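Margin note from the TA: students keep mixing up input and output lines. Inputs are the sequences; the output is the structure of the whole complex. Example:
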Amino acid sequence: MRNALLIACAGLALSIPARADRLPVPADAPPSFKAECGSCHLPFPPALLTAPDWKRVMAKLDRHYGDNATLDEKTRREIEDFLLRHAATKSRMAGAGDPPRLTQTAWFRREHRKVPDPLWRDARVKGAANCAACHGRAEQGSFRGRELALPELRKRERD
Amino acid sequence: MKKPVLLLLIAATQAFAAAPRELAQAYAAEASRQAPGFKASPQRGAEFYAKRFAVSDKMPACTACHTDSPARPGQHAVTGKAIKPLAPRAEAARFSDPAKVEKWFRRNCTEVLGRECSAAEKADFIAFVSEGL
């Protein structure tokens, strides 16, 4: 009985990413990644989408969520290669939409299930892609609950 | 048509890290070839900065992201990401890298005006954000 419980717990632990709250940008990121992807939004950790998702994002930079983010082919390829090297493999990290959004993966939605709807539209936040509005240390790759920048979220995290 | 201004920009960076003034001069020189006697005007730059072009819903004017004053920090109108002030007096690195300046004029003019900006508009714009009124 006790063994069965232990095995169940171990299985549960294995199914959770090693550290869901640590998502640093991998060290082999080309300088163009931060310069190009990081000027309008946080340079998102590549592990937040799967390889097919990133390919679709990088194939349509002229229609990049309402913006034209076209790059020269050398830079585009360099960034795509980097994203693919570190892309997620689990199906819960598959994005939805075209181009796919990393804010609509099953994983992202589950992680943010306690966030009340109006907060996504709050002037300080503006949308789900603005990680740093709530995750004060997102730039450093840290997404721990205790670091949440908005007080109303810290309370929810504790509840 | 674009080559002379680029050559001037490259010459400006080779001598020393380009200051906003050199960049504005390069754009003004290009503009005066199209309209002899052109002189950059901070006043026209200010009007351009505040103008509502209304081509884009979320970014109808420069001010949509950069606020009413280029000396203040802004916020991306769509993503919410913080934007450092445009004015070199508030953010020293602004208008010092010609390639970066060209890239952002191209992207933001296309977004906000629905077309690329002219050399005259760029010269006026830099005159306004770097000198103020």
